[in-house]
Amino acid sequence: MARLQSILVVGxxxxxxxxxxxxxxxxxxxxxxxxxxxxxxxxxxxLLGVGEATFPSIRGTLSAIGLDEGAxxxxxxxTFKQGxxxxxxxxxxxxxxxxxxFHPFSLPSQRPGSxxxxxxxxxxxxxxxxxxxxxxTMQYRLVAQGHGPKRVGDPDYQGPMNYAYHFxxxxxxxxxxxxxxxxxVRRHEATVERVVLDERGAIAGLVTQExxxxxxxxxxxxxxxxxxxxxxxxxxxxxxxxxxLFVDRAVAMQVPYxxxxxxxxxxxxxxxxxxxWTWDIGLQQRRGVGYVYSSRHSxxxxxxxxxxxxxxxISDKLKPLHIKFETGYRPEHWRGNCVGIGLTGxxxxxxxxxxxxxxxxxxxxxxxxxxxDLDDMERAAKHFNAMICARYERVLDFIKMHYCLTQRTDxxxxxxxxxxxxxxxxxxxxxxxxxxxxxxxxxFVTDLEMFMPASWQYVLYGMEFHTDLEPMRSSYPRMxxxxxxxxxxxxxxxxxxxxxxxxxxxxxxxxxxx
Length: 514
Ligand code: FAD
Prior knowledge:
Elements: E1 6-10, H1 14-27, E2 36-41, H2 57-64, H3 69-75, E3 79-81, E4 83-87, E5 100-104, H4 117-122, H5 132-136, H6 139-144, E6 164-166, H7 169-182, E7 186-189, E8 192-197, E9 203-208, E10 212-214, E11 218-221, H8 228-233, E12 239-240, E13 249-256, E14 268-273, E15 276-282, E16 286-293, H9 300-311, E17 321-324, E18 328-329, E19 334-335, E20 338-340, E21 346-347, H10 355-369, H11 377-404, H12 412-417, H13 425-434, H14 453-462, H15 479-499, H16 503-511
Parallel strand pairs: 1-2, 1-11, 2-7, 4-14, 11-20
Antiparallel strand pairs: 3-6, 4-5, 8-9, 9-10, 12-18, 13-16, 13-17, 14-15, 15-16, 18-21, 19-20
Helix pairs in contact: 1-7, 1-10, 10-11
The chain binds flavin-adenine dinucleotide.
Flavin-adenine dinucleotide (FAD) binds next to helix 1, strand 2 and helix 10.
């Protein structure tokens, strides 16, 4: 048996360093005789530098690698994220009807013995006009009033509300790099110029100008959109899904706060625009704002006009960064002795922040499926590829749901998004079932889903989808109890406000020791 002894991660962005940290921690890379983890990053090729919003799974990942939460906040300009507010997704500005809805990270409240609230909300049990997140969670009100998800003394990565982070993508890579080296990752600076393949098509070595040839038993490609190993060298095909999700360009700007103590939004704001949507993310020192759009429905000049109009005069002196990307993935993320993780393996557009979450998944799968015997590589690759492809397809369905339920007909972008030909059959089937009953956990195979049933419910009903429960009303006899619960949630959330600090104050206090 040929034992796996060395892993070389290529690329030092968020993906490369997360993989390296996780592998090093799990494989105890610093101990004598353990599997060696090296990382090589190019001194000349920069990071993409966007990717500022995360998903709650990041807390488990950062906790697993042993990084202090305060170190993350202080080092990466990070703040807390408790969900996403969607503006103008259902109807364009100026129309009659609600203009936004909230997708919180916390689940709908359900105390032991009390009824599940969703059916009663669908049957009109909540106060008139209250959206699901508002009626069924405390998080909605806390976030609207600018409160953070935890108290200063709460343990790292824990708090009463479910949360993730907003952070500076370049600075987070630096924080992880420092931490990774403490865990035993050996860092090298060099640019991979050429990939040498052996007679079986596996990678035999990487040629760099600075360090000559680099060799390992397993290569993890984290070279981002360049995809030097798994794409260029291993020729693993890319499966485009722009037939489902149209946006493929972004223009981003870093926006200063008007004053140093300006409040920081504790959620991402996703505002629908004529050919896509804008993200607005509050970090400690600045906001990150970007317009993601479809090149079939707009162009770079018009996109810059849209983002500048969205930001107003503050954008006059700001320099835009233009980015091209494609939604899709490599069905073979892992081929031979090479695994692609991060943008190199695939990307679903930034809505719902699945980029880094898919890096976490790839990292987790790789670490736990890693064969000790090199001859077992093919089996591990097959398992890895099946799991990650299934996740991509579920994520695609979830993101497409945001678009295809729109009532907007003001531009071709929104009209095209409702074309049934662009909606995957798996999503169409689910939507058809949910006309008569709400989403249930049995609709989802937990290990393959990134989003909990509650997330599907918040977005589905936030987009004003109609589930007709009237014929089933008699199956829900606990309306009075449910109404008492709705009232109790409002009272408890009013009390929680005095317990949880304002967002900026929380972040600043947690950074103080670092
Ligand atoms: P990169 O950050 O590009 O890093 C690539 C690394 O490879 C660099 O270190 C570079 O030096 C190195 N490299 C490249 N070529 C070579 C070579 N030849 N030799 C040696 N080293 C090399 N994700 C989220 O989770 N949330 C978001 O809100 C989000 N928003 C996004 C918005 C847009 C418009 C886009 C396009 C992506 C977004 N993402 C988001 C995805 C996110 O940016 C990435 O998943 C994340 O930053 C990881 O990137 P990466 O490490 O794969 O690539």
